[in-house]
Specification:
The complex is a heterodimer. By secondary structure, chain A is of the alpha/beta class. Chain A is about 30% helix and about 10% strand. Chain A has 2 domains: about 220 residues, 3-Layer(aba) Sandwich (Rossmann fold), CATH 3.40.50; about 110 residues, Irregular (Cytochrome-c3 Hydrogenase, Chain A, domain 2). The chains are: A alpha/beta, B alpha+beta.
Chain lengths: ~350, ~575
């Protein structure tokens, strides 16, 4: 992150600035008196590029806090094509006004990758390319959050052969970028990242891939409630076989839990209702860079040496000979750090590009 | 004199849509609908394991999540002659009716309502009168004066801080007709719907592990049922689903439908606006005796031509002469020339952008103007969506559907012809949600009946292994998505995907003209739509939103080989 001009002190300054910003003068119903402290709401814009809107959909699934409270009380979300009332040039005005009135103070949330192929014509909004919009909006932003795998690492449109040149946000902007990968990210993780910044007033600690450690420092496998079955060598051999009906480990039918850093098995999905493994399907590794090209989903991870002890799982990170070399290197780093019991800081200037 | 106006971005939809229209004497005389984003998923699918295709195609859209996954597993199962266990089919039906109910409620409140509801005007409402109005419509126990008063206070505070996502709306526009109390009622339920929608999707989490993007499986569903085991779908899980269904039923019958009817009653003039095409296509949906037996689907399959409800024309997605895609006005090129149509199994997709160099102000003067292709059924443009589903089933004599349609029209006191309109489309979506809600309850009861008799198999393993597959196979998966007729066509060779094509609802509705110059649904429906103020064309949003556009779905095609990819640079 430091290589990209990111600086924690800058960010904390931003948080202070956000707290000092005024909102009353932009009131559309000026005479109404506010009962709560509107000054604490930072200005936020949400950009949509090459995406499927699953991140927006996930965001509104949050349970703590619920999205209505966030939209009304926590954020001053002035631009999001999915939900905003205004359309056309009035919508564009919401964006340009927010930028002009909050220089250096607003947060940009990006959903989607940016296609660079054919000079950017594969994604255009208001007659402008996604890339030009991103540059224009990010220029005076305090911080950028890349929602989901599209913005963090390109996701499905960047899968081979990446026909449109889909590119993740951190490769395009010279700004702090917090990557919150997943397809989509878990709703309450998205909320937690936002509130970590605007309520605690702090930047969440990030790993060397720009991911908040709070939610991306544990492998799904290490926190999986089915882990005991793995350790005991109890595996599902085929979907809905007797072992599946007992909830055994899904490793042999392709589970990517051992190489996937995410909070699914702890936070779980939809207010803790379940997560993929709990409902019988292997983890497909959707928060890892290049997961679409990491072999067929139902082919189990190669070079997986036996069962039962912690060290075998650790070695998975380095043994996987598939497409996500960069991601695997990152796993190895974090794994080693964990083994040295030095979880706190991971800084590297030669971070792998994803 | 005609004025050309542009709405871009069209907001409160999925994806990137641009509408250009000419307005003369306060009415739209012509319109152009342009999809302005492309990702290339069909090319990405080639060479991959067909069993993975559901996951890739599910990412076509996160709003219509699960729908493409269903179309994909059906396409693969069709190609490989796989029959899914009855219990798995019931669970898929539960997943899909859940999606209908969620999608339609969210569309009404969060994507469409602000075309009809003036949120700023709600600040003038009397909460007492609002409660009286609400209680006259429904017995929902939340509709009290104190509740509406607290919502109004919340909105007042919010308005003072700049209105956020409601900023720069067309508030105060003369086309808004609701009294302040009805506006406050709708705004309050907008917030309630936002909170409720996160609940119903927990049904997807139970069976599919997460939402958005729950997991599917070729040959069945991934979850197992075992009422002797904590690590499976058991009594606790089923109780949770039951509770969520009951909550959803209450929300649909006590909040959504009463609100829809109340709002619609103020806008009956929109029953004569936005009719557009007169042909309607539905693939039929909700198998009760297997996907191969469409006669036993809840919704019928077929085509209605010229609004003639006396005849349902059969549809065959395998016939190379029925469904074809054109690119005469799309940013693609075909080997055999740009005016031919190709069946999806023989589809070609070679992008050739020929629009203006961005940044641009208008697409005027450009013959090609969209990344959407133009599908046709027997050379004719088709409208798809809830209205088409209802009409085809109505004409096919499905009594459940006929009763639901007659009931809603009776409550609004409008004739059947009112359905052929912007208002009719929006009302049809409500009827569709009501039917889906009823079927969701029915499918859950079916599932419980299966569990009781221990018929719990959820997966057919016979053709799971690629070595059991023929060298070559082709299949088609048909789905009625919430937004309408969706189909995936697949060709498999040597265990890998050789070709994969999707023709989705918004491609039917939002596509540009075809080679003969016939307009598709959006463009047709806009013609004749009044526009009181060209600076604030809320009327365009009303008609376009009545289709519930989904552009990420509609455009997913791929680039030509070897196209120059701009170098990525780092600062």
């Amino acid at each position: 992150m430091q290589a990209k001009g990111y600086n924690r002190r800058d960010f904390l300054q931003f948080c202070g600035a956000a707290a000092a910003m005024a909102g009353l003068d932009r009131s559309a119903v000026g005479q109404v008196v506010s009962a709560f402290d509107v000054k604490s709401k930072p200005a936020v814009v949400w950009l949509h590029f090459q995406e499927c809107t699953c991140c927006s959909e996930s965001f509104i699934r949050a349970s703590h806090p619920i999205v209505a409270d966030v939209l009304l009380d926590v954020l001053d979300l002035n631009y999001t094509e999915t939900l905003q009332a205004a359309a056309g040039f009035q919508a564009e005005k919401c964006l340009t006004d927010t930028i002009a009135n909050n220089k250096g103070k607003y947060i940009v949330l990006v959903e989607g990758a940016v296609p660079l192929g054919d000079d950017g014509v594969y994604c255009m909004i208001g007659g402008k390319t996604a890339e030009s919009i991103l540059q224009e909006v990010a220029k005076d932003a305090a911080a950028v959050i890349a929602w989901g795998s599209c913005a963090s690492n390109g996701c499905v449109q960047a899968a081979k052969p990446n026909p449109t040149g889909a590119t993740p946000i951190h490769k395009l902007v010279d700004k702090p970028v917090i990557n919150v990968p997943g397809c989509p990210p878990i709703a309450d993780v998205m909320m937690a990242v936002v509130t970590h910044m605007v309520v605690l007033g702090q930047l969440p600690a990030l790993d060397n891939l720009g991911r908040p450690k709070e939610f991306y420092s544990r492998r799904v496998h290490d926190t999986c409630y089915r882990r005991a079955n793995y350790d005991a060598g109890l595996f599902v051999e085929s979907f809905d076989d007797e072992n599946a009906r007992k909830g055994y480990c899904l490793y042999k039918v392709g589970c990517r839990g051992p190489v996937t850093y995410n909070a699914c098995s702890v936070v779980r999905w939809n207010e803790g209702t379940s997560y993929p493994i709990q409902s019988g399907h292997p983890c497909i590794g959707c928060s890892e860079a290049g997961f679409w090209d990491n072999g067929p989903f139902y082919q189990h991870l190669p070079s997986f040496p036996g069962f039962g002890i912690e060290s075998t799982a650790d070695s998975v990170g380095t043994a996987v000979g598939l497409a996500t070399i960069a991601g695997v290197a990152a796993h190895a780093i974090v794994t080693n750090v964990r083994k040295r019991a030095v979880i706190a800081e991971v800084h590297t200037d030669d971070q792998p590009e994803v | 004199m005609a004025t050309r106006i542009v709405v871009d971005p069209v907001t409160r939809i999925e994806g990137h849509l641009r509408i250009e229209a000419t307005v003369e004497n306060g009415k739209i005389t012509d319109a152009w609908s342009a999809g302005t984003m492309v990702r290339g998923l069909e090319k990405i699918l080639r060479g991959r394991d067909p069993r993975d295709a559901w996951a890739i195609t599910e990412r076509v859209c996160g709003v219509c999540t699960s729908i493409h996954a269903l179309a994909s597993v059906r396409a693969v199962e069709d190609a490989l002659s796989i029959t899914v266990p009855h219990t798995a089919e019931i669970i898929r039906n539960i997943m899909q009716t859940t999606q209908y109910v969620h999608d339609h409620v969210v569309h009404f409140y969060h994507l469409h309502a602000l075309d009809w509801v003036d949120i700023v005007n709600a600040l003038k409402a009397d909460p007492q009168k609002t409660a009286a109005l609400a209680q006259s419509l429904s017995k929902w126990d939340k509709n009290t004066p104190a509740y509406f008063s607290s919502v109004q206070d919340k909105i007042k505070q919010f308005a003072a801080s700049g209105l956020g996502i409601f900023a720069n709306g067309y508030w105060g526009h003369p086309a808004f007709k609701l009294p302040p109390e009805a506006n406050l009622l709708a705004v309050a339920h907008y917030l309630d719907a936002l909170e409720w929608q996160k609940e119903i999707v927990k049904i997807h989490a139970v069976f599919g592990g997460k939402n958005p993007h729950p997991n599917f499986l070729v040959g069945g569903v991934p979850c197992s049922i075992n009422t002797d085991e904590v690590n499976a779908i058991n009594s606790e899980r089923l109780n949770l689903v039951k509770k969520l269904i009951d909550q959803a039923d209450e929300f649909v019958t006590q909040v959504y439908i009463p609100d829809l009817l109340a709002v619609a009653s103020f806008y009956k003039d929109w029953a004569a606006i936005g009719g557009g095409l007169s042909n309607y296509l539905s693939y039929g949906e909700f198998p009760t005796e297997g996907y191969g037996n469409p006669d036993k689907f809840k919704y019928a399959r077929g085509v209605i031509l010229n609004r003639d409800l006396s005849t349902v024309h059969p549809v065959n997605p395998r016939d190379s002469q029925e469904i074809k895609e054109y690119i005469a006005h799309s940013w693609y090129t075909y080997e055999g020339g740009d005016n031919v149509g190709l069946h999806p199994w023989a589809g070609e997709t070679d992008i050739k952008y020929s629009g203006p160099k961005p940044p641009f102000q208008t697409l005027e003067g450009f013959d090609k103007y969209s990344f959407l292709k133009t599908p046709r059924w027997k050379e004719q443009a088709m409208e798809v969506g809830p209205l088409s589903r209802l009409l085809v089933s109505y004409a096919a004599g499905r009594t459940e559907v006929q009763d639901a349609v007659k009931g809603a029209l009776g409550k609004l006191n409008v004739p059947v012809s009112a359905l052929f309109s912007t208002l009719g489309r929006t009302a049809a979506r409500g009827i569709d949600a009501e039917l889906a809600m009823g079927w969701l309850k029915e499918f859950f009861n079916d599932l419980m009946a299966q569990v009781k008799i221990h018929e719990v198999s959820t997966f057919n393993p016979e053709r799971w292994e690629p070595k059991t597959w023929p060298t070559d196979a082709e299949g088609v998966g048909l789905v009625e998505a919430p937004r309408g007729a969706l189909a995936h066509w697949i060709k498999i060779h040597d265990g890998k995907i050789e070709n994969y094509q999707l023709v989705v609802p918004t491609t039917w509705n939002g596509s540009p003209r075809d080679a003969k110059g016939q307009r598709s649904s959006f463009e047709s429906a806009l013609i004749g739509t009044p526009v009181a103020n060209i600076e604030q064309p809320v009327e365009i949003l009303r008609t376009i939103h009545s289709f519930d556009p989904c552009l990420a779905c509609a455009v997913h095609l791929y680039d030509s080989e070897g196209r120059h990819i701009q170098r990525v640079t780092f600062e």
